[in-house]
Amino acid sequence: MQRGMTNDRTECLCLSTLDNLNGGRQTGTNSGVPLHNVSILVIIMQSMIILGIETSCDETSAAVVQDGILRSNATAVQLVHSEHGGVVPELASRAHQRLMVPIVEDALRKASVDKKELTAIAAVYGPGLIGSILVGLSFGKAMAQGLGIPFIGVNHMEAHIFSNMIEDPKPSFPFVNLTVSGGHTQLVLVKDYFSCELLGETMDDAAGEAFDKVAKMLGVGYPGGPLIDKLAAKGNAKAVKFPRPYLEEGSLQFSFSGLKTSVLYYLRSIGFDRTAGMNEQFLSDIAASFQAAAVDVLIDKLLTAAKKYGVRDIAVCGGVSANSELRRRLETESKIHHLRLFIPKLDFCTDNGAMVAQVGYERMRKGFVSSLELTAEPDLQLN
Ligand code: KG4
Ligand code: ZN
User: Fold this and answer.
1) Which of 102, 277, 326, 342 could cross-link to 164 by cystine, CB 3.0-4.6 Å?
2) CB 352 within 8 A of CB 179
3) Can you tell me the distance from the alpha carbon of 351 to that of 61, in angstroms, rounded to the nearest whole number?
4) Is ligand 1 within 6 A of the CB of residue 183?
5) In what helix (H) or strand (E) does residue 313 lie, and over which residues does it extend?
6) Is residue 217 part of a domain?
7) Which ligand is nearest to the CA of 206?
8) If we measure between CA atoms, which residue out of 345, 317, 319, 360 comes closest to residue 155?
9) What angle do CA 330, 176, 334 make, to 5 degrees?
10) Residue 318 Cβ contacting ligand 1 at under 6 Å
């Protein structure tokens, strides 16, 4: 059903036609997920209501999308990790278990939707922390089975790309997408809903990982990205000239490990002791100088890719897209280069159920559903 159509329109989705589309074979979908072994299943629905579940790292989130329109999004950020200076996988899994039911109930309540009204349930099956993924995935599959409705496995990286398609305006295909999260830095040419090409990615640390590690070096705490962002706002970005790792001319690959190490060597060279009393201005200057180097590289490669593939629309997503300096610079550069910029609102930059529910909705429209045998794939690739 297209966005904008009224909810009282009855739609029939015949999943048995999937066999015909696939020449009668039980082939996988383009994400490699096997189709549900359904031969004669006709779902008659007033509208399509999808519950999306995201538990791949340290956010427990659920959302409801009805006919492509977001009805609710409920996210719990796990605070248990802050005293450890980083995400502790075992603690994350346990926190997901505690939070799963209340968060799903919250999402359904905010959407004024009863679980019996759901058309399908979508949950992330990778990439991410295996224990964390398993909590949301098992919950989603069990709930779908209990309700007798389809289950849809969602690729976490595909979901981030969809975070710019939750609300209007949406980018037009083809567009170049930059995903900058705690575990990934990827440039992707998005040709259609489920057709994309990986153009480049990081060869070592992800952008978010570099922010988190620099925050740790400075002893400013966790989560590092937002803290560096806040400190940098008061700092001098020209205080220290850290290297910009562009790699070869025109390369769309990234490498942030050298930049991170330069910060470490600089701090060592001046005898910095993170346990000693903090000089707020010094910390702000280092944060701003590091952030400027990272932002320069991200923007340069995004613009290079946009030019190379001749697109009009560019999109940025993932936790680091919440960074205020990156957002500010992107606004300026996109205007200079006559590109239309798409960047999610802050709630949808970091991990969230809304992007998962939106992928679930588009997959359901195309009849792509998953087997209940689908299991967690911590290293799941984009294509
Ligand atoms: O997308 P995300 O929530 O989870 C992953 O899929 O990894 O991204 C989390 C990452 C963390 O590294 C976090 O430090 C970073 O996003 N991050 C930021 C900001 N907010 C979150 N980095 C820079 N500036 C921010 N404002
Ligand atoms: Zn993520």
Assistant:
1) 342
2) no
3) 8
4) yes
5) strand 313-317
6) yes
7) 1
8) 360
9) 25
10) yes
- 197 and 331, same structural domain? yes
79 CA from centroid of ligand 2 (Å): 17
> Does residue 74 sit in the same domain as residue 210?
no
Verify whether ligand 1 is closer than 6 Å to residue 127 (CB atom).
Answer: no
pLDDT tens-digit series, residues 344-381:
999 999 999 999 999 999 999 999 999 999 999 999 99
Q: Is residue 170 part of a domain?
A: no
Q: Are residues 16 and 143 in the same domain?
A: yes
Domain that holds residue 75: 11-164+351-365
* CATH number for the domain harbouring residue 185: 3.30.420.40
Mean pLDDT value across the chain: 89
**Exposure b/e, 310-327, CB count within 10 A at least 16 = b:** ebebbbbbbbbbbbebbb
Q: Answer yes or no: do 78 and 160 share one domain.
A: yes
pLDDT in tens, 299-325: 999 999 999 999 999 999 999 999 999
Distance from Cα 161 to the centre of ligand 2, integer Å: 10
Same domain, yes or no: 182 and 331: yes
Answer whether 42's CB lies under 8 Å from 113's CB.
Answer: no
Closest C-alpha residue for ligand 1 atom 23:
225
Considering just the CA atoms, what is the radius of gyration of the chain in Å?
21
> Do 87 and 203 fall into the same domain?
no
Say if residue 223's pLDDT is above 60.
Answer: yes
Residues 187 and 306 in one domain: yes
Atom of ligand 1 nearest to the CA of 209: 12
In a domain, residue 3? The reply is: no
105 is a domain residue: yes
Cα 222 to middle of ligand 2, angstroms = 17
**181 CA → ligand 1 middle, Å:** 5
Residue 295 has pLDDT above 90, yes or no: yes
Cβ–ligand 1 distance for 181 under 6 Å, the answer yes
How many domains does the chain divide into?
2
Q: Are residues 44 and 22 in the same domain?
A: yes
Closest ligand to C-alpha of residue 231 is 1
Q: How confident is the model at residue 289 (pLDDT cuts 50, 70, 90)?
A: very high
